[in-house]
Amino acid sequence: MKTDGAPPAVSQAEDSAPFDVRLVPVAVVCWAITAVGILDGPGAAVIATASTIMVVLLGSTALRLVSTRRAVTGPSGAGVAAVIVLALCFGAAIWLQMRAIALHPVAAAAEDRAWITASVRLEEDPRRLSSAGPPMVLVKAELTRVDVGGDALYVGGRVSIIAPESSWLSLLPGQEVTVRGRLGVPTRPDMSVAVIRTSAPPVTVDEPGAISAAAGAFRANLAAVAQNSMPPDRAGLLPGLVVGDVSMMDESVVENFRAAGLTHLTAVSGANFSILVGAVLLVLRGLGIGPRATVAVAFVVLLAFVIVARPSPSVLRAAVMGSIGLLALVTGRRRQAVPALCGAVLGLLAWWPRLAVDVGFVLSVFATAGLVLLAPIWVDWLRARGWPRTAAEVVAVAAAAHAVTAPVIAAMAGTLSLVGVAANVVVAPVVAPITVVGIVTAVIATVSTTAAEWTAQLASAPLWWLIAVAEKAASVPAASVGTPDGPMGAASTVLGTAALLAALRVRAFRWIAAGVALAALAWWAAALLW
Predict the structure, then answer these.
(1) Burial group, residue 331, by CB count within 10 angstroms (0-12, 13-18, 19+)
(2) Which of 53, 257, 392, 509 is the least crowded, having the fewest Cβ atoms under 10 Å away?
């Protein structure tokens, strides 16, 4: 029998094997220590590290006693030692970094709200701020030199700059600028040493590097083509979906996306990379390209998209998470996906500790975990009840992502979207085509603007559908409900989700829930078409 292209028999056994979760405690411990150190300072990092080691030692001892009595395998000494060593490493690293921030000369000057002149290198694109006054932007930057009270200090350190939109919005990451402004204490625990507020344009601006300029031109071409070829609401949404450029998005669209649980679509996430690399893999496989060449081309495309979307920590995090999720789905090796996810978490936190308290990082990790752990199980459950594969995958992926991220959103924002799963299921078929068409449009725009505008029209109808779904979902009564914020909000959401999943195991409740869901979906579809 010919078996070319078919998965080997061992993959089925591997797929049914229990997940390899040995790295999960390590990732959780190192993440928790890093987050505590950032939120509460170097002293808290020491206490968190010591407490964690004590808990690990006591817990492993208790598990060994239980395993001895029940004749089962307990935690290995090497595993416990690895957790302790990494906890010490991460604890020491965050202690050193937070201590350096606390003793930073610019941090001391920020307490006195001193006026300074600073040379900085921009890390990210300027982001518009919503305020009642003049339009302002927020820019993240790294210090290279600062003049405080007549003294020139050649020091590093991350700062946030709040500046006028008119003279700062067009700046690009990597540019060196000189800013004159007043220092302030950071309002968010993001490992910044200070906030610089200015009402003036940059004193000096260096030319951007070749790569940064090329990426900026790529993004600008996409935005210009969209503005020239479709209505304003769709034109502002297309760059947001493709490269995370939300600078031209209509405010009403932004609010509707937030209420409908679709905000994640307008940020560069793992889904963008999964869609792009998945499309490349499909094309290369269709052309009969070998596996090694396929991997090489996919890597080059991934690297190019990272450059276009900006190689910031959030984008690199999305690239890593998207690659893990895609590989788990393509290869079917879910067992290896868990240690890969944990390794990615450890690596990203070691390089950029501030991701430990970044909401996007938390949501990305949780969504990836839901994709590789829950979604395949729910797909199998739905298919066993007669669902077609495509429908089962769309519903399972949207439901799993919503289930695991809802507690985080409740804790952070004190709100829970009740239409998020339905809205994501309804728009799922158009997200990938829009992303692919947007990338192709931007590439064509480097050669011919007219051809790019014609190509962009392929995304116009899907964009209309996205905007219409978001508007209708946001207008549904009680589209979102308030929850307690913080741990209580997360706990209540977890308990509510668990209760719903348990109730769905009861046949009578399952039929009632299905009937209600179908009736609501029919009413929603009728309202949308009307």
Answers:
(1) middle
(2) 509
